[in-house]
Amino acid sequence: MINPFSLPLLKQGIMGFGRNFTKTCKKCNANRFDGILDYIFGKDNNLCFKCRVQANFFKFVLLRWFSFYNINHHTFYKLYTDSTLRKVLKNIFKGFAIFGLRIPFVTGAPLSVVWNYTKKCNLRCSHCFSDSKFKQKSEHELTTEEAKRVIDILAANDVVTVNFCGGEPLTREDLFEVMKYTQDNDIYPSLSTNATLLTKDICKKVYDTGVRSVSISLDSISKKKHDKLRNMPGAFDMAIDGINNAIEFGKFDEIIINTTLADFNYEEIPQIYEFVKKLGATRFYVSRILPAGRGKYYITHDVNKKAKHNVMKFMAEKFIENIENNHGLEVLGRGMPYFSRSCYDLSNGNYYPLCEILTGYEDKYQNLFDGNTPKLLHRLSRFFSGCATGLFYCGLDCDGNVIPCAPAGQIKLGNILKEGLHHIWTKNTVLNQIRNRNKVKGKCSKCYTKDLCGGCRLTAYGLTNNWLESDLSCPY
């Protein structure tokens, strides 16, 4: 079926519309998007005549669009007053200007960046996608000042959130300083950790930087199994202590427990779910071994399709149960966009996550669009569902290299301090290849949920050396 947005005249018109609202007005000496929003909401009455005319037109278009989706016009004001949502809206218009209105949609800059902040780690995990080094940092790891320059660049591009990952990010002494700098630049920082260093004092230091979401790895409720994967005796006990410290601290909005699915623990997933729920976590992620770093060799421990299908079914049941009964523990898949299909099938198309970081059922989004957030997002799902790599998310390594996604550390797209984010994001040939989802091959191209899932692009590349091949890890 022809994508109408790809028609030359319509595409050029949409791109022109986006460019017009994201460039700087010389008369107003300000970014036109920000100036127009300020004018609409009565914060600035000094716009030039041309910008005032365009402001009224912009408001007319947005309100009509909201009306089409049965959204109350008061939501428009919420988008303005919330700095995060405002940046999202701005990056959508930048996406119009640069890429046009395409399926799937590409934002003008990544909304989310996962930063492998250091190679140094205090564990030796067999499946580590970043191939971290035991107590040894990268030779070219960024200095504190260079890390802050990276944050300056991300802020200038309206990046919304940065997740500090690793290695083990808590092994870097400047982590708290740089995370605080991230928050001070209106970027939402979050933390991924193995929790072995997460003492009560560290929890407070993390919270004081502005972090409200902490993701912690736990691979089994068996000490022996967890410690074996982490290649460190006592890792399980230290992780449990860290989780309890974070929960007892009581101030984090999100405490996420992440379990890597493998042949040694797939039968435990229901028990791990109950254990995590009893601990008091807010989210439970099940991820998979990715063919990157040491994971490329550990991939032989991936589960077979039948076992994975059963795990997906259990997770989907819990995902739907949480929505219908408000049980308080959200369940999501990581590196497995086909989890959306599991939920879609089991609920007859009523409930499903759009991607690994967004479902629409989160408490913080529930009331944003007058209670219609999931319905609205589902209607727009073709534009931004599935694997987010190159669409509104990318990775960054500890040396400052932009990478397609956090596990793709071997594929360096350019150094952010030398080339800038905008040039890499818009011009890089690898990213633009990944974005051609209409050219995905094999069974992914024929699947009835291809717009909802589309497969993990890194898995396709890691197992076939082709970003647009089918996701061979899919159980369907």
How is this structure best described in words?
- There is one protein chain.
- The chain is globular and about 70 Å long.
- With 476 residues, it is α/β, with parallel strands linked by helices.
- It contains 22 helices and 14 strands.
- The strands form 3 sheets. It has a 10-stranded mixed sheet with strand order 11-10-9-8-7-6-3-12-13-14. Strands 1-2 form a two-stranded antiparallel sheet.
- The longest helix is centred in the middle third of the chain and has 21 residues, at 305-325.
- It is 45% helix and 12% strand.
Give me the secondary-structure category.
Answer: alpha/beta
Q: First CA to last CA: what distance?
A: 24 Å
The tally of helices reads 22
Rg calc: 22 Å
On the 0-100 scale, what is the average pLDDT? 89
* Low-confidence parts: none
How much helix, percentage-wise, in residues?
A: 40-55%
Widest sheet: strand order?
A: 11-10-9-8-7-6-3-12-13-14
* Relative strand content: 5-15%
Q: What general outline do the C-alpha atoms trace? A: globular
Number of DSSP E strands: 14
Tell me about the largest β-sheet.
10 strands, mixed
Question: Can I get a quick summary?
Answer:
By secondary structure, the chain is of the alpha/beta class. The protein has helices spanning 8-22, 32-40, 49-68, 74-81, 83-99, 144-156, 175-184, 200-208, 223-230, 235-249, 269-279, 295-298, 305-325, 339-346, 363-366, 373-379, 381-384, 416-419, 421-427, 429-434, 442-446, 457-464, and strands at 24-25, 30-31, 112-116, 120-121, 133-134, 161-165, 188-193, 213-217, 254-261, 283-288, 330-334, 393-396, 401-403, 414-415.
